Amino acid sequence: MDNQAFVEIQNHISGSDVMLFMKGTPLFPQCGFSARVVQILKHAGVPFASVNVLENQEIREGIKKFSNWPTIPQLYVKGEFIGGCDIVTEMYQSGELQALLAEKGVAQNAA
Q1: By the 8 A CB rule, do 92 and 40 touch?
Q2: Are 55 and 22 in contact (CB under 8 A)?
Q3: pTM score, two decimals?
Q4: Could you tell me if 37 and 20 are in contact, meaning their C-beta atoms sit under 8 angstroms apart?
Q5: What pLDDT does residue 56 have?
Q6: Which class would CATH give 3-103?
Q7: What pLDDT does residue 3 have?
Q8: Fewest CB atoms within 10 Å of the CB: 12, 68, 77, 98?
Q9: How far out from the chain centre does Cα 41 lie?
Q10: How far apart are CA 73 and CA 34, in angstroms?
């Protein structure tokens, strides 16, 4: 990964409390896993930013190296890598995700 992609990824992550690297956009997800994480975040009432990795091959490959995680989507909360679709889904279902968001001071609206 070149340094510019690394810096760009870091800027995205530090620029938003909740950052989702996904395929597509929140309005038009391009894969089921990305769509599921978007649904979870919306259901939790969490404002989030996203990056469509399909628009930038360097970001798409770079985020996997950055997080040492092989798949997309990838969710970050306050700069911390949380995980992909399966982990986010499990955390949401158990209430762990909501607790983490509250602990980190991320506003959640009642769904």
Answers
A1: yes
A2: no
A3: 0.95
A4: yes
A5: 95
A6: alpha beta
A7: 87
A8: 68
A9: 9
A10: 5
